[in-house]
Target: Origin recognition complex subunit 5
Amino acid sequence: MTTVLQHPAYEEERLQRVAEQLPCRELQAGMLLSLMGEPQHYSYPSIFIYGHRASGKSHVMHVLLKELELPHATVSCVECISVTLLFEQVLLSFFGCDAASLLPRSPSLSDFVRVYRQQCSHSPAKETRYIVMEKAELLRDTDANLLPALLRLQELVEDNVTVILLSEIVWDKFRPNTGCFEPLVLNFPDYSKGELQQILSQDRHPSYSAEFYSSYINILLGVFYSVCRDLRELRHLAALNFSKFCEPLAEGKVKETDTHKLWRNIEPHLKRAMQTVYLREVSSLQWEQMQQMEEKETGALRGLSAHTHVELPYYSKFLLIAAYLASYNPARTDKRFFLKHHGKIRKTKFLKKNEKTSNHLLGPKPFALDRLLAIFYSVVDSRIAPTASIFSQISSLVTLQLLTQVSHDDQLDAPKYKCAVSMDFICRSGFYIRRTKAELTQKHF
Model:
């Protein structure tokens, strides 16, 4: 049930419309209304709002300022790549094009304050003006005096203006080393599973009942909630897979209440979709086309792992194969597999308990950097020297999350890694090493 917001300065109907657009964020909206106060009163100079991605920060501010018809300027720090664009956006929103044209070609902070104060003398604020800075963490990379000036802009321009910073990091990591005016800090927590269920269930398809779509969202969250809490990503996944969920229902094979059969039909598709969470290499149309190809051609592209579509440099592919061999093979077998003259190997009649289990089921094991390079130089076709390019490609594989560094950053002498890709990716990399392919599929596992 929607919580009714209350504020003496605004009509109850208008606040009700605001609450309906902010499900599960009524508490934060009420706190913001309390901090903002009445429109004609001076508000606090700066407010810092932080929370993880897709926790409703921008949406709550946009709905409040739009529905309550408060004068505001929304500035994206991603789009405003220079302070000139930032100053122009603020002046344009509050005073029009003529005020923005008064800025010099490369304006300083003093120029912005001067023009702002000139415009305030002609049109003083009857209500509090709000400057909303989205992705405000990027302000840390600008001039050192910009952030402290924005936090006390109300004092500098002598106007009823409040700067609201929206960020994904906490204020302790945001605060300048030189010190600054402390803003009011407000946290937007992550949505709980029940809140995500409530929000996503509002996007139901008009052809189906609310209970049916709610059960679909419950299944979706049961799969993805442990790895993804991003509301936008979950909404995208829900829209992408709903047609597949309804397929048996449209064919008349099951009923809406047959949840178990519907789950068995959608389970393999959700598992494939889990491999592409946060990765948008394919559009919704391409996703459907690739699913149709899977059904027609059994041997063709299985799964939609985004890693299978990554084109890597030449030596990075060899490094990844070497990492895979190092993760899934015991270190004592390196001499047998990668040396021509490894000597006589004694055959044993029994295996240890752990060796009877497939290494695929046990998962990848960590390996040292020197072992990775030793296998790499063994499987690569050409003779190459250990250069900085090879080490930088290892760092790139870690950045792409194809390798995982498991050692601490202070262990510079012997860093350890794990391979984070499957055997399918190794086989689909676009090339095969004749000497190691048979060992991968027959000897090693």
Q: What stands out?
A: The radius of gyration is 29 Å. The chain has a mean pLDDT of 80.
